[in-house]
Amino acid sequence: MLHIIKKQSGEAFTIKKGQYLKVIDPNGEQVSDMVLFNADDIREKISSGKSLDFEETLLLTKGHKLWSNRSNVMASIIEDTNGRNDFLLAPCSPETFEIMYKHEGYHPSCFENLYTNLAKYDISPDDIPTAFNIFMNVKFASDGKIEVCPPTSKSGDYVIFKAEMNLIVGLTACSAEDSNNGSFKPIHFEVLNQLN
Predict the structure, then answer these.
(1) SS3 (DSSP) at 180
(2) Which of 79, 86, 177, 193 has its CA 20 to 30 A from that of 136?
């Protein structure tokens, strides 16, 4: 069944070990922040540092694995039709828009959309780790300077993850202007028992 995450919002749900999660960019140029927790022990969660370390690359795509803070594989990337994702930058938060965008007043954020949806699993704001930013295009120069560029994803691009343990998943349709080339769009996802 196809699920729709409306623009600038999020969802949280569980998937079982061996199931597949397909995250789809229906319109193109839309980032989706994803966090993972061990459904049997929420203290175990996705780790950017462990994943980049063990996979020996900053650009995780098909064939790579997402690791936990306990050095266990949480998910494997089975397919990635776009091939550009980010695992460096934290979910956008109210402070992101105050500090980087000089925005005054309320602004939806991935951080809020993650922790409010994950609250039903007793996951608090302080538990939210650096997200795996699906379709996000972060470039880095030789001097270390980083730049958020428009996503390269086209309409219909998708990433398929295989759950390597029982997982709680938090997923967003990102709310940061720069991450999505200035516009906000939905994200679609499916939970599959098998791949065709």
Answers:
(1) helix
(2) 193
